[in-house]
Amino acid sequence: MKQIGHIYLLVVLFFLYTPIIVMMAMGFNESQLYELPFTFSFRWYDALLGNKQLLTAGMNSIIIAVITSVLATSLGTLAATALARRTFRGKSLLQLLLLPPIAIPWLITGTAMLVFFYWSGIGRGMHALLIGHVALAIPYVVLVVGTGFKTIRADLEEAAMSLGSTPIHAFFSVTLPLLYPSILGAALFAFAVSLDQFVISYFLATPGYSTLPVQIYSAIRKGFTPEINAISTLLLLGSMTVILIFARFAKPGDTSDKR
Amino acid sequence: MTNVKVDTVAKTYGSTKVLTDISTEFVEGSFTSLLGPSGSGKTTLLRIIAGFIKPDEGVVMIGNNDVTNIPVWGRNIGMMFQSYALFPHMTIAQNVAFGLERRGIKGAAARKEVDRALEMVRLPGFADRMPKQLSGGQQQRVALARAMVIKPSVLLLDEPLSALDRRLRQEMQVELLRIQRESGLTTIFVTHDQEEALTLADTVAILDKGRIVQTGKPATVYERPTTRFAAEFLGDSNFLEGKVEGGAVRLASGTVVRTASTLPANGSDVTLAVRPEKMTISSGGSHANRLEARITTVIYAGPVLSYLLETPDGMAVKLFAQNKDGVVLKQGDTISLDWSPEHTIAVAS
């Protein structure tokens, strides 16, 4: 039984990581048509440096992801705080309304946004992409931070207040430090949701302003070159670093210092 | 050290009256248990005194100050919670110093106070540990130190010992009592554990459906319950129903029962309460009250034997006896029960 488990794990890891490793390797292969034998070369990284469009799109993606992460995490954390610690009219409805956007296909959300932004005059471009990404990421943040709140007992804040803390001081001195791993996780989630986003970005991008997934998609339609492997590798290394930093500081799964 | 006074306090949630017209005074230095079943409003009353909840009506006084409109953080109270509520991301010293820091006491002065408080709860040398490294009992001591170090005007305890196991709970009870006596701090303690209430408190207030039904010394409330609820909630009671007849009570079965309590006019309905341990199995003694009953169940509980009995007319009676000779009587035996009029209490039903 244990062996079957090990084999299953290996198969999963194999199908998950082999394509990625092959992609990374081919970025260093001389041949444009992925021909073997493998000849090591920086040719495609050189080509990438000359490909302004791809580089700009990559930069755009990162900028949008960072801004989305900051905005969605702040707004989502505030919402999660209200949902976890306050009672107000329409709270259950609001909680219920937060979930469908995660389940609704992005194609539908994207179409709806495009139509709405066109109709309302918001239009397309960076600002539209930002609004779209933030709106999309907030439910994830509320979910992650909300789960974090469930591990923090409300009586910790009450204890702080009984010792002389105002509610705001209690929140910043007790709740926020305990919530910090969840908030960091949520920020990462928002960052990933934005960086990954293709469908909505595709609808809201303009010919002059697009993100990396959109740019890669149009590049593939014209013809695939290993430059795409090169920029994908760089992006992958970037996100891996972020995740590792997060894992180092937030110790996901370690809840032993919370009751 | 201060008096705490609650005057005509009422609280309603939606259509539920949680507290109705509560007026009571917690005397300086006293240790009061608020005792009642869940839903009786005891926790709500404690939280109103703490300042977490604002009453709809009435006034809360701490000392000579009307604190009704002052929120919890302005009241200078010490509070202990059921879950200890230590801040998990702070060391023991930081936990205890939290309230001091809010009062502007920092550095060496704070450190001295913290050390003293930890010594008081017999945890010196624990200052630099984290809460999760401590046992439940130790965490509870830290919570007590944290509540006491700010020199509060009143100490409020919300079922602080119910999360501890039996042995530890008894140990903490002794500790709590010692610290309360030494500090002379007015203490209000919410519990649903009647034994704990009787052991710790010098005053017991019994709450039922949002009202205080009886307040007094533990022995008085136990020996002289004024209502059927109090007699039933605090300890066990047998209830005998009958009509007043010539200074005594005639039960439906015709048996006449005498009582030392003052009775209403002849012909009135009355309920008498008798504690199961005040009844004895007849040895031909001279007690004034006697009932014949058949044993339906014998419950063996070590030092005490409980007999569940039934009178010929179908009334259930309970009797507790010291286990002196082991189980002698058995199910089906018919015995006589004796008890004194002194232990027959007329209660309001």
Biggest sheet of chain A, in brief? none
Write the CATH homologous superfamily of the largest domain in chain A.
MetI-like
Structural class of chain A: mainly alpha
CATH architecture of the largest domain in chain A: Orthogonal Bundle
Give the termini separation of chain B. Answer: 38 Å
Number of domains of chain A: 2
Give the biggest sheet of chain B: 6 strands, mixed
The CATH H-level superfamily of the largest domain in chain B is P-loop containing nucleotide triphosphate hydrolases
Q: Give the CATH topology of the largest domain in chain A.
A: MetI-like fold
- The proportion of residues forming helix of chain B, as a percent range, comes to 10-25%
Mean pLDDT of chain B: 89
* Major interchain interface with per-chain residue totals: A-B, 21 and 29 residues
Protein architecture, described:
The complex is a heterodimer of chains A (259) and B (349). Chain A is an all-alpha fold. Chain A has helices at residues 2-26, 43-50, 52-85, 91-98, 100-103, 106-120, 126-150, 154-162, 167-196, 199-204, 212-222, 227-250. In chain A, α3 packs parallel to α7 (126-150) and α3 (52-85) packs antiparallel against α11. The longest helix of chain A has 34 residues, at 52-85. Chain A starts with a helix and ends in a 9-residue tail after the last helix. With 349 residues, chain B is α+β, with helices and mostly antiparallel strands. Chain B has two domains: 4-227, 3-Layer(aba) Sandwich (Rossmann fold); 236-347, Nucleic acid-binding proteins (OB fold (Dihydrolipoamide Acetyltransferase, E2P)), CATH 2.40.50. Helices cover 24% and strands 34% of the residues of chain B. Chain B has a six-stranded mixed beta sheet with strand order 6-7-8-3-9-10, sandwiched between helices. In chain B, strands 13-12-11-14-20 form a five-stranded antiparallel beta sheet. In chain B, strands 15-19-16-17-18 form a five-stranded antiparallel beta sheet, with no helix packed on it. In chain B, α2 (92-102) crosses α3 (107-120). The model of chain B has no long low-confidence stretch (mean pLDDT 89).
